[in-house]
Amino acid sequence: MADPSSYRPQPGQIPDSPGVYKFRDEHRRVIYVGKAKSLRQRLASYFQDLSGLHPRTATMVTTAASVEWTVVSTEVEALQLEYSWIKEFDPRFNVKYRDDKSYPSLAVTMNEDYPRVQVMRGPKKKGVRYFGPYGHAWAIRETVDLMLRVFPVRTCSAGVFKRSAQIGRPCLLGYIGKCSAPCVGRVTPEEHRELAEDFCDFMAGRTGTYLTRLEQQMTEAAEEMEYEKAARLRDDIGALRRAMEKNAVVLADATDADLFAVAEDELEAAVQIFHVRGGRVRGQRGWVTDKVEAVDTAGLVEHALQQLYGEEKGEAVPKEVLVPALPEDTPALSQWLTERRGSNVSLRIPQRGDKKALMETVHRNALQSLALHKTKRAADLTTRSRALEEIAEALELDGAPLRIECFDISHLQGDDVVASMVVFEDGLARKGEYRRFQIKSFEGQDDVRSMHEVVSRRFRRYLQEKLKTGEWSPDEGGEVDAAEEDGRPKRFAYPPQLVVVDGGKPQVAAAKRALEELGIDDVAVCGLAKRLEEVWVPGEDDPVVLPRSSEGLYLLQRVRDEAHRFAIQYQRGKRGKRLKAGPLDEVPGLGESRRLALLRHFGSVKKLRQATIDQICEVPGIGRKTAETVAVALAQAVPAGPAVNTATGEIIEDETPAPAGAASDRGTEQ
């Protein structure tokens, strides 16, 4: 725990102007980002007697080890920079909203040559028009089914679209009139895009003009005795009216507004948003957050506005934003919203009438959301805390291991050796900090040497980061190569309190030896053996046995299983590339089934290349002529460089981070 006075800036050093500031911990990790009209006044408020600070603020300033700031010209620039830094650094003491459930949206891919209507979840993509989010996916599909009669926009996937174009026949929707079939040229790309734009206009709330136009066309068709056309237009009007009825009318027809409501207690808060377009509720979403910083309702509203509109532009930002409390920097926020929309945006508190009544409904939804979240979360918080305490007690640690890193080795009979590193903080997976390693081959299946290598490489990177920040020097022990400065946040720079390895006593000894060789003595090590789920610690002849019902053992199992899953995923991916891009692909007459049979039998192309023709003939389905062809093809495909994979011809890599999906959905692999 640091003393704030040890890093307090000198008097007069802080400018009296707008800006954004960052607090960093002892490992140079950004733990809090804030903005201020006056940096001097705001930062001075943090360096007072700790007894006068809010407990959460006191925790933050004692966790921090330094503070820095950036001066900007206006409060709007400060708002924008604060949002950017929060997204970049993900500070632990800033309020971070997370969806209380996964909301689907109706999306129109206007960035494609032939726009497509579909249900989408997750982050928004550039060039795609979104409507919603909605409470249920089936509600979107019912609405789309009604509207496709009038706006026959394609809904098929790229594969189906391409296949229909190749065979010259549309899919079923094209035959029943719910798709204009651009795949077979029934409409031009321009005509199809116009249909998609009409669809978007109708979903955006501009319904009155379109319905009036259809009614006029129906009347004209009836007067000209084109009764079939008039009947079709009548049915189209009915379908659109039924689609409109699915969204309740709550405000005047011309009202475009987002309504925010907040329900909170001392520890948590829930935010609910209703999206009203054309006087109708077009979507709803909710967020929940832990109040890790000292923040009131106005502050929660400000964070919610940044979260919702930080990536939005144009009509996605409404004309009116109704909130329960005005943030401190209301003029700057209003200007920021106006710039994002491109026209004036009103930010205010509703005082009376229908808008206030609807705001009360939104608030009731927020209260219900907070109550439901607490019901789900209470047991989870308790068990996670108990698990960390049990691990600390069993391993005789000084404190609970808030950051745990687990390593696992994976290979196929000694080939394609890889390793994984997964990270758990506060008992929860941090998928954005997972790492993958490619291990150099050893003779035989040497998991112990592989474990020593991967732990050494991980913590050598940690020492590199300390070397750059001046927190460590080579005189303290260990060897480390100089690292290049690329300006990006360094994930290897944050040490764990506990390293877990998948294995028993030998793997634990290898990991401990790797740490000692680098001069690191403040990181605990343990291993979890699969056979009896025994916990091994360095230097002990007997394992630590945790009760089967122990929450600590359950957490260690989760960490170990996640590392195993991630390693297997990487190893299978590498093996799949080898199967697809190997020299066997070039053997004439050798199909996929027999190619896989060969690789399963021998385990790798390398071992297959060393086999005799008689040994190749032992594989079911492989005759002597085929075996001779395989042997000749492999002999001609010998690679020419020690740094090239013998099976794939690709350059051997070093540490690689987890794929983007694992960091964001942080949520695509479970």
β-sheet strand percentage: 15-25%
Number of helices: 20
Our measurement of the CA-to-CA distance between the termini, rounded to an integer number of angstroms, reads 35 Å
Cα gyration radius (Å): 31 Å
Helical fraction: 40-55%
Low-pLDDT regions: 476-489, 639-670
Mean pLDDT: 79
Sheet having the most strands:
8 strands, mixed
Backbone structural class:
alpha+beta
Q: Give the overall shape, derived from the CA principal axes.
A: flat
Tally of extended strands? 20
Kindly describe this structure.
The chain has helices at 39-44, 55-63, 75-89, 137-147, 158-167, 172-175, 189-203, 208-223, 227-245, 297-309, 330-341, 353-395, 447-469, 505-517, 551-581, 592-602, 605-610, 613-617, 624-636, 660-664, and strands at residues 19-24, 30-36, 66-71, 98-99, 105-108, 117-120, 129-131, 257-264, 268-277, 280-290, 320-322, 346-348, 403-412, 415-425, 428-429, 435-438, 498-502, 524-529, 534-536, 656-657. The protein is of the alpha+beta class and 670 residues long. Strands 13, 14, 15, 16, 17, 18, 19 and 20 form an 8-stranded mixed sheet that branches. The chain has a 6-stranded mixed sheet with strand order 4-10-9-8-11-12. Strands 2-1-3 form a 3-stranded antiparallel sheet. The longest helix has 43 residues, at 353-395. It is flat. Residues 476-489 and 639-670 have low confidence and may be disordered.
Task: Produce a short descriptive summary.
With 670 residues, the protein is of the alpha+beta class. The protein has helices spanning 39-44, 55-63, 75-89, 137-147, 158-167, 172-175, 189-203, 208-223, 227-245, 297-309, 330-341, 353-395, 447-469, 505-517, 551-581, 592-602, 605-610, 613-617, 624-636, 660-664, and strands at 19-24, 30-36, 66-71, 98-99, 105-108, 117-120, 129-131, 257-264, 268-277, 280-290, 320-322, 346-348, 403-412, 415-425, 428-429, 435-438, 498-502, 524-529, 534-536, 656-657. It is 42% helix and 16% strand.
